[in-house]
């Protein structure tokens, strides 16, 4: 793919002039912003079988079936299913041998008159890559960041054309397809925080890799997926839920990682304003951590998330190196309590002023932002293996000039020591476990959960020797890594 990006007009016209492409547009919420481009550039009769909007809820329900919310994934799926099915039923016999049918849909909440609503939308395309082919599909979730309705509509139209163009002409290069979604736009106008590929054209695509790609390219600051690999839209998972996060490298997942999160869960669920059945627990990996050795190692990334999946963990990949930015990101989805669990060593780093020189208010501004939404830190002890002494909230060494701030936060309950930990795991350090795996020392198995040990051995993760020479992971890497590591890394934050 060249550095020169085709204009939106050129993309729309190229689609219109492709005799294979023919389908429907169904758009709800911000106007028919995407299909307008195809009418505007000319030759639309060769592409558009139907264009429609169903703004009235009763009308929309009559066409697509009832749903609880109108700007949601389920409504988009219903729209794609109905429109694509109708196209094939009505037109297959007449032109099915030469036409690759498609249905494009979006359901959007653009800025209202008072500016009080969340500006976001779901957008997708279901299509045949070739005539008579099985269906393929791409779904994205967008957040519109312009401060007026007209600009949001314009941005929505552009990203829609980019999605259609990518589906038709870049489906064999999904990483380039993702990169092209913001052609003629910027991350100041549109954020894409979820993408999912499915169907015959994307049978080799791992959507977790595509989620990472969103964050790597800057299209989103965070991406999320479940233990079974399903891509999740953060707002739908986190909305009005209490949230508990553990940040880690997970190279590999050890007993300490799981003990820390379990101890924090016990304390968090006892909080007066936390419904234990509603708690969302996340294992977070930062982009800085993934880039610790330079460019992102795709095989290493998949090893980490597969071992987390073996533990049933939901994974958050984020570009929020500073904890206060992570807290701000989570708080936009919930007013419930948010907690972060960390080791005593990480807490010590949190109080090092050198990390906050980019803020006018320094460490005070950082902590003011971090704790303003009733955030809580749960702290796991650090053991000195030579002396057996534990570093805890009570005896953590803090710079004298910050001692009063630290004592205030502890006294207020913002920082709390974890007590329900297993002392047997305190001597485990992930770097040492990684070295054991790579050197063939079987002692590493004692330091990780059994399900993690099984996955590492079976798939040869982290340099483990006892595995079959060709693995599922190798196939995934080959399918997803065509140009993955060629993006320069932004300056990171060392917390």
UniProtKB/TrEMBL annotation:
SUPFAM superfamilies: Nucleotidylyl transferase. InterPro entries: Rossmann-like_a/b/a_fold. This is Nicotinate-nucleotide adenylyltransferase. It comes from Rhodopirellula baltica SH28.
